[in-house]
Amino acid sequence: xxxxxxLGCRFRVRRKEFVDALKDVSFVVGEGxxxxxxxxxxxxxxxxxxxLTGLVPPSSGRASVAGTDVVADPTGVxxxxxxxxxxxGAAHEQRVDDExxxxxxxxxxxxxxxxxxxxxxxxxxxxxxxxxxxxxxLSGGQRRRVDIALGLVPRPPVLFLDEPTTGLDPHHRARLxxxxxxxxxxxxxxxxxxxxxxxxxxxxxxxxxxxxxxRVIADDTSARLKRExxxxxxxxxxxxxxxxxxxxxAVEEAAGTREVTVVGRTxxxxxxxxxxxxxxxLAALEAQGTGARRLVLAEPTLxxxxxxxxxxxxxxxxxxxxxxxxxx
Amino acid sequence: MTSPTKxxxxxxxxxxxxxxxxxxxxxxxxxxxxxxxxxxxxxxxxGLFGPLLLGSVDEAVFGPxxxxxxxxxxxxxxxxxxxxxTMGSNLLTEVQTGAxxxxxxxxxxxxxxxIGRALKEFAPLVVQALVIILVAMPFGFSPDPLGSVLGVxxxxxxxxxxxxxxxxxxxxxxxxxxxxxxxxQTLLFPVLILSGILLPVDSGPDWLAAVAAFNPLTYVVEAExxxxxxxxxxxxxxxxxxxxxxxxxxGLYVGVRSVxxxxx
Lengths: 328, 264
Fold this sequence. Notes:
Chain B: It is found in: Cell membrane; Membrane. Chain B: Its main location: membrane. Chain B: GO terms for molecular function: ABC-type transporter activity. The complex is a heterodimer of chains A (328) and B (264). In chain A, strand 4 (60-65) and strand 5 (68-69) form a beta hairpin. In chain A, helix 3 packs across helix 4 (111-124). Chain A is 40% helix and 27% strand. Chain A contains twelve helices and 14 strands. Among the domains of chain A are: 2-80 and 156-226, P-loop containing nucleotide triphosphate hydrolases (Rossmann fold, 3-Layer(aba) Sandwich), CATH 3.40.50; 232-299, Alpha-Beta Plaits. Chain A is α/β, with parallel strands linked by helices and 328 residues long. Chain B is globular, with a radius of gyration of 20 Å. Chain B is mostly helical and 264 residues long. Chain B has twelve helices and no strands. Chain B has one domain. The A-B interface holds A 50, 53-57, 75-76, 78-81, 83, 85-95, 98-99, 102-103, 105-109, 113, 116-117, 120, 134, 147, 150-151, 154-157, 186-187, 189 and B 1-6, 8-9, 11-12, 15-16, 19, 22-23, 26-27, 30, 90, 93-94, 97-99, 101-109, 263-264.
């Protein structure tokens, strides 16, 4: 449904000064697939969506959506897609219901269809009390819900969502995900989304694309990425520093372990597939007389994958999360 | 649940334009306060500048109908100029908040986003012009009925062109809001003064009258005065209509070009 080949996108930032937002991006999204595009700020996630939705022309490479080339027939692409951007899709001077109906007309949908779809979205996103209010009077989260409703009005075969859940409270995030899952079940909608909530990508996306410095650096299922790039984090406590040092030596020699460090009487390491590596390791340590007193086995997260791949934490590089954490 | 749009519809530029025009008119219908506020400035000119003009310029300059007959049609062109030339700021706000981007991703043709907006200028101008006529009539303004209808239509055509130019300016400077206001204000007063709306250009030096001859608004103002005085099929009206149509055509061309060319 979405095919991207060696896509490049260059912007002029000043006279004779250019930035390559995309250098070489290639990927494919199959029909009915949900793929999450992850990456630090400025990695090229939004630019990728903007090229695919016809907002920005690519400088090189090719891209097609629903079998239609984005450069040759941008209007053809726009008839087949829905889009929720990062900005406020609903104009501040408009009333919520007016914008929703104008959106339906923009897609040339029959009035009765628009009314039915709007009624359904209003129920889903709790917009009932907001319908006759001007958009400027809504809170940030309420506006976001309207933006999402606008993107869903056309019921398109392909949906692009640029950080759809940013700014939503947990209740509405969950409701939105229920709806997205429902769209996929009912209509087999193909979805490409960016998100800063890695757990969303982990839970809902069939595949994760990690993009950094304008290139795709990983493209796989979340489970495989975690297994291949990180493995489990293991932390073991011993009786004292000497035992820990002895144990660390044995750990380093064991198969499937890496990044072994000793801090006081604690040994930290990563195990590729902790469930198979750790039990024999514990037995070996017990046998040589340096048995572990305490063991913590942590499942890898997508953030670990991210750290491993980019050398940066997604959360560190992300002002939104910094602010959220500071507030918490 | 309704089914997703499977077979895409063909492009329908006219219905696209109508979609945008209706969308733009909605907030005005919902809250006509905007119309009331936009009438204050022309009414101030009519009420405060009018008497001053009357007292300081020889009555003979204004022709047979007197000062009011000369001044009121000019004020109507002034609403068209002052009101519609600021309309780009609405688009600028939508560019900055993201609403324009949302519309760019819909199947609406790019051109309809400008043409639909520009056509909407017609409606409020007609309402404003009618209010000004009604306000001025008790003070001795006596408009020709047929001429008034044509005059108001002409005003609407001019407004479409000026509105489109304002939208084009908004697209061109979309990342610097100050530039929009700087350019709009810088252009507004020379165009206003050189159109003979406020004071007769003939009473100035020759060079000023020569420059004014290149201002399309000069002809529109002249035509409005002729129309309200009862002239219909005269050269003055013809030149004014031509000037208004040229402004409309130029405005729409530049506006459509700007929205087609600019990625957000």
